[in-house]
Design goal:
Layout lengths: L5 E4 L5 H12 L4 E6 L11 H4 L9 E2 L2 H5 L4 E4 L3 H14 L2 E4 L6 H7 L7 E4 L5 H16 L5 E8 L9 H14 L3 H4 E3 L13 E7 L5 E9 L2 E9 L3 H13 L6 E3 L1 H5 L2
Parallel strand pairs: 1-2, 1-4, 2-3, 4-5, 5-6, 6-12, 7-9, 8-9
Antiparallel strand pairs: 7-10, 10-11
C-alpha cells in the first residue's frame, strides 16, 4: 500500500467536488481513497471514473462516511453546514484532517465545530486561494491605518447557482476589516439594502452580492472617503485554485496537533 496520505472527497458530484477529485487524482503527493454523495444519489455504488464520463478508476462512490473516513488521513469537504457538522464528528473519530471549504455557517454552527477539533486537525477557510488570503491580510492592514471617516464596502460576484450570500470569502474579508478597526463585525454589518434605508451608518461594513452566469469569484474591498477611494481586488477565473489550496491544506495538516486552523496558518502568511 502506498505511503501517500489517503484523501476522501465529500459531495463528489458538485462543481467543487469534481474539481477536487480531479486535483487529488492527478497529485503525486496524495491518493484518492474514497468519495461520498448523499444517500439516494444516482452515483452511489458506481465507479467514480465512469460517473465522470471517463474510464473506471477503482474508486466507488459511497454514502457511508464512517467506512470511508476510516481509510483516510484527510477529508476535503465543500458541502453544506449541516453535512459538515456531521462529517466533523466522524473525521474526529477517524483522527483524519478535516479541510472545510463549506460556507454559509451560522455563528452557532461554527461554534459547534469546535468539539471535534479537540481530537483532530480542522482547517476551515471561506476561501482556499493564496491570493484571497493575501487580500485578507491587506484588508486588515489598510483598515488598521484608516479612521472611521473611511467607509468600508465589500462587493462580491459569483455564478448564478451559488446558494449563500454574502459569500464566505466576503465575510472573511469583512471580518478582517472589522479586526483591523477593532470592532465586532456582527454589530457593524450592513447588507441587503433595499428601499429607503436612510443614510449609511458611520463605521459600518457594507456587503453587496452579485449573482450571474458562470462567475467563479470576484471580491472588492472598497475604502471610500471624501475625495478618494482605495480598492483592493481579487478575481478568480478557475476554481482549480481552490482545489489546489484545499489539497495543500490536507497535506499540511498531517503533521499538526489537533486544533482549529485556517489558510493563513497553512500558507505561513
Amino acid at each position: 500500500m502506498s505511503d501517500l496520505p489517503g484523501i476522501v472527497i465529500t459531495g463528489a458530484s458538485g462543481r467543487m467536488g469534481r474539481m477536487l477529485c480531479a486535483t487529488v487524482a492527478a497529485s503525486d503527493k496524495a491518493r484518492l481513497v474514497g468519495v461520498l454523495e448523499r444517500t439516494g444519489h444516482e452515483w452511489i455504488g458506481r465507479d467514480l471514473g465512469e460517473c465522470l464520463g471517463g474510464a473506471a478508476n477503482g474508486v466507488t462512490v459511497s454514502d457511508d462516511p464512517l467506512e470511508a473516513f476510516s481509510r483516510a488521513q484527510a477529508v476535503i469537504d465543500f458541502t453544506a453546514p449541516a453535512a459538515t457538522l456531521a462529517f466533523a464528528k466522524i473525521a474526529a473519530q477517524a483522527r483524519a484532517v478535516h479541510v472545510i471549504g463549506t460556507t454559509g455557517f451560522e455563528p452557532e454552527q461554527i461554534a459547534a465545530l469546535e468539539p471535534a477539533s479537540r481530537h483532530a486537525v480542522q482547517i476551515r477557510a471561506g476561501n482556499m486561494s493564496l491570493g484571497v488570503n493575501l487580500l485578507t491580510l491587506l484588508t486588515k492592514k489598510v483598515s488598521e491605518a484608516l479612521d472611521i471617516e473611511w467607509d468600508i464596502e465589500v462587493v462580491e460576484a459569483h455564478h448564478n447557482r451559488k446558494v449563500d450570500a454574502p459569500s464566505g470569502t466576503a465575510l472573511m474579508l469583512g471580518q478582517a476589516a472589522a479586526d483591523g478597526r477593532g470592532i465586532t463585525l456582527a454589530e457593524n454589518r450592513e447588507s441587503g439594502r433595499d428601499g429607503i434605508t436612510g443614510a449609511r451608518q458611520p463605521g459600518a461594513i457594507g456587503f453587496s452580492a452579485i449573482r450571474g452566469g458562470d462567475i467563479v469569484g470576484e471580491h472588492d474591498v472598497i475604502f471610500a472617503t471624501a475625495g478618494e477611494r482605495i480598492v483592493l481586488r481579487h478575481i478568480a477565473t478557475d476554481r482549480a485554485i481552490f482545489a489546489r489550496g484545499a489539497l495543500k491544506a490536507a497535506l499540511w495538516g498531517q503533521d499538526r496537533k489537533p486544533g482549529q486552523y485556517d489558510m493563513i496558518d497553512v500558507l505561513g502568511l
